[in-house]
Design goal:
Elements lengths: L5 H26 L6 E5 L3 E7 L2 E6 L4 E7 L5 E4 L2 E2 L10 E6 L5 E7 L4 E5 L1
Antiparallel strand pairs: 1-4, 2-3, 3-9, 4-8, 5-6, 5-9, 7-8
Length: 122
């Protein structure tokens, strides 16, 4: 029986995955279910999430982190530890970004630095 050359196959497959990963990371937000609220990604461990009509609350392990959510509503307020976060053009500073999607859904990118207790409401 001939040995399987997994290192060579793995490196080719791994190379393709790494090449496609940035593209797929952008596309994942589009594939999340329409009309539903979901935390899609976080740079920290998400310890708990509470979904309610027009509201999402969650807690991350780290006080400083960045998350991506898909929401069925446009958030009117975003807070971290009870302090309001401002809407921004980028996520280099604490705050949030909004991206409208079809059917009234929104992609929300949240960056917080002082608290992992986040609340989005609309």
């Amino acid at each position: 029986m001939d040995p399987i050359r997994l290192p060579m196959i793995s490196s080719v497959v791994l190379g393709r995955i790494l090449f496609l990963r940035p593209v797929s990371a952008r596309v994942v937000t589009e594939f999340a279910p329409l009309g539903q609220d979901h935390v899609l990604r976080s740079s920290s461990v998400v310890q708990k999430v509470k979904y309610a009509p027009r509201s999402v609350e969650y807690k991350t392990f780290d006080a400083a982190a960045t998350e991506v959510l898909r929401l069925s509503f446009r958030p009117l307020h975003v807070t971290a530890g009870g302090a309001a976060l401002n809407q921004r053009d980028g996520t280099r500073e604490a705050g949030y970004m909004l991206q409208p999607l079809s059917a009234g859904d929104w992609i929300v990118r949240v960056r917080h630095v002082n608290s992992g207790e986040i609340n989005l409401g609309g």
